[in-house]
């Protein structure tokens, strides 16, 4: 990204938010920003980057709104039209940005609409880029965005920060949206296992939110969690596209800076004594990141954290992970007992369950049951890279059995 | 904007409420009335009689069919409504949140089309 491109990206959320306040609706605000951004690229090339790009863009966007309003014979809301916004500190615009975040992530919108609006309006991705992140045709994403915008106005979703009593609930929905965007980056696509750009957008959004909610421990936990995962993304895939599982990843290729940042953030969050599921998941991810090699992983601690996570946010995935951790810590019998608590009927084609169960049976010495489960997983798997990996494990087990 | 707030209840459950449960729900309605009157958003509202008192009418190309009962058998039935005029959805969600629902039912908020001049 050019310097100007980076400046535009950084300025966009607050500029669009301020313009939304003046314009009274999102469409006009985005058009005004788009126009201002085009002018900026010409002007900045001639005069250099202004001291306050956000203020520059707001002034330019607002002038356009005023022109459009005068032509239509309307008044423009907000302060005096002559006012320049270039003296404004970006933090003076935080209230507008908060309003914009809570508009895009309003619980009265379907999750797919929240996600699409957040990426388009706040992160500033093009419709084509949002479409690519969600593996849908551009036309589909354009229609989805149009429907989302129509819902904003039809339902009367306000450009407002929720009342204090509602805030925790509403912020939780915002964090869920950001994490969903991050996970979308991990949903497999042709060729690449990780769409790192989408992951980076989610991390960028979390950093933006952290400036607005610096004391929120779950937000810190979420950012730490995503940083830990993202630090490892380059090591997840072999040059031939095959999935590399955690124990076999080249740890020297992990991004140490991201891991340092994540663990520091997590330490601050945990120190505040307001635990939550994102912090617990981040703590687990951090333990993986901090182990110098796979055999040094503190599995007993990880199993204990999964037990906490089971209480904070119960679900089969958490239970499966707890069982795996228990077995890695040396207690395969207890791990199998934990797995047996699950309602297996709903997991017959869920590969993480099948793989975990197979591994535990293998460790227990029941090779026939282990192989049957792995074949079941191979049949259920939707990912080419995962199937490749599973067949490889089956083959390795067979070879070892021959010796 | 005008909004209608439709209140759905499982009638069987509703008719078997304990006195304490009923008092809690009524307190919720009083709170909505009080808040909306104070905000100046209250337009109207009422409780509907049981679906046993419902009559369904169909007009199929002039052929009128009148039947006893609601048009659809559902687990939860429309039991009452409010109409408010407010600036935004959050105001109405705020009113809806004053009503305890538990397992009895839920509330649906729908904007009304603006009156055309």
Describe the structure in your own words.
The complex is a heterodimer of chains A (403) and B (117). Chain A has 403 residues and is mainly alpha-helical. In chain A, 68% of the residues lie in helices and 0% in strands. Chain A contains 18 helices and no strands. The model of chain A has no long low-confidence stretch (mean pLDDT 90). Chain B has 117 residues and is of the alpha+beta class. In chain B, the strands form two sheets. A four-stranded antiparallel β-sheet of chain B has the order 2-5-1-6. A two-stranded antiparallel sheet of chain B has the order 3-4. The mean pLDDT of chain B is 92. Classes of the chains: A mainly alpha (403), B alpha+beta (117).
Kindly summarize this structure in a few lines:
The complex is a heterodimer of chains A (403) and B (117). Chain A is mainly α and 403 residues long.
Question: Could you name the key traits of this structure?
Answer:
heterodimer; A: 403 residues; mainly alpha; 0% strand; elongated; B: 117 residues; alpha+beta; 4-stranded antiparallel β-sheet; 6 strands
Distance between the termini of chain B: 15 Å
Low-confidence stretches of chain B: none
Strand content of chain A: under 5%
> Measured on Cα atoms, how large is the radius of gyration of chain A?
24 Å
| Shape summary of chain B | flat
Beta-strand share of residues of chain B: 35-45%
Biggest beta sheet attributes of chain A: none
How many strands appear in the DSSP assignment of chain A?
A: 0
Q: Into which percent range does the helicity of residues of chain B fall?
A: 25-40%
Mean pLDDT of chain B: 92
Mean pLDDT of chain A: 90
Radius of gyration of chain B from CA coordinates: 16 Å
Query: What is the terminal-to-terminal distance of chain A?
Result: 55 Å
Name the strands of the widest sheet of chain B in spatial order: 2-5-1-6
Helix/strand/pairing category of chain B: alpha+beta
- Please provide the count of β strands of chain B: 6
Tell me which protein chains meet in the greatest interface and how many residues each side has.
Answer: A-B, 11 and 10 residues
């Amino acid at each position: 990204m050019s310097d100007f491109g980076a400046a535009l990206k950084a300025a966009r959320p607050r500029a669009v938010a301020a313009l939304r306040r003046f314009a009274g609706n999102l469409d006009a605000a985005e058009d005004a920003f788009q126009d201002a951004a085009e002018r900026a690229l010409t002007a900045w090339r001639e005069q250099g980057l202004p001291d306050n790009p956000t203020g520059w863009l707001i002034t330019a966007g607002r002038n356009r709104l005023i022109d459009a309003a005068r032509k239509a014979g309307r008044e423009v809301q907000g302060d005096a039209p002559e006012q320049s916004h270039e003296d404004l500190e970006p933090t003076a615009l935080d209230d507008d940005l908060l309003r914009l975040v809570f508009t895009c992530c309003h619980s009265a919108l379907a999750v797919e609409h929240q996600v699409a609006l957040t990426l388009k309006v706040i992160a500033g991705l093009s419709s084509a880029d949002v479409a690519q992140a969600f593996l849908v045709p551009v036309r589909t994403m354009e229609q989805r965005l149009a429907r989302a915008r129509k819902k904003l106005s039809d339902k009367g979703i306000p450009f407002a920060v929720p009342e204090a009593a509602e805030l925790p609930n509403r912020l939780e929905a915002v964090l869920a949206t950001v994490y969903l965007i991050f996970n979308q980056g991990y949903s497999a696509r042709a060729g690449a296992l990780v769409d790192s750009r989408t992951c980076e957008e989610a991390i960028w959004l979390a950093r933006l939110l952290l400036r607005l909610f610096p004391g929120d421990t779950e937000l810190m936990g979420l950012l730490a969690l995503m940083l830990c995962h993202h630090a490892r993304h380059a090591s997840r895939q072999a040059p031939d596209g095959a999935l590399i599982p955690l124990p076999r990843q080249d740890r020297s290729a992990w991004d140490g800076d991201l891991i340092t940042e994540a663990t520091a953030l997590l330490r601050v969050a945990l120190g505040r004594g307001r635990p939550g599921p994102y912090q617990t998941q981040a703590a687990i991810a951090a333990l993986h990141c901090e182990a110098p090699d796979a055999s040094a992983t503190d599995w007993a601690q990880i199993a204990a954290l999964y037990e906490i996570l089971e209480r904070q946010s119960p679900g089969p995935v958490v239970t499966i992970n707890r069982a795996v951790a228990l077995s890695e810590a040396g207690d395969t019998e207890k791990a199998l007992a934990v797995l047996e608590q699950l309602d297996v009927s709903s997991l017959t084609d869920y590969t993480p369950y099948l793989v975990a169960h197979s591994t535990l049976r293998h460790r227990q010495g029941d090779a026939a049951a282990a192989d049957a489960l792995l074949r079941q997983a191979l049949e259920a798997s939707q990912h080419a890279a995962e199937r490749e990996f599973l067949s490889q494990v089956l083959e390795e087990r067979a070879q070892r059995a021959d010796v | 904007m005008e909004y209608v707030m439709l209140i759905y209840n499982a009638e069987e459950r509703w008719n078997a409420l304990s006195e304490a449960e009923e008092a809690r729900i009524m307190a919720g309605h009083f709170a909505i009335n009080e808040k909306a009157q104070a905000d100046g958003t209250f337009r109207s509202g009422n409780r509907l009689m049981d679906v046993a008192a419902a009559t369904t009418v169909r007009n199929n190309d002039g052929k009128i069919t009148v039947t006893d009962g609601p048009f659809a058998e559902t687990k939860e039935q429309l039991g009452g409504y409010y109409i408010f005029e407010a600036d935004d959805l959050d105001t109405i969600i705020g009113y809806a949140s004053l009503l305890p629902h538990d397992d009895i039912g839920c509330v649906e908020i729908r904007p009304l089309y603006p009156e055309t001049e």
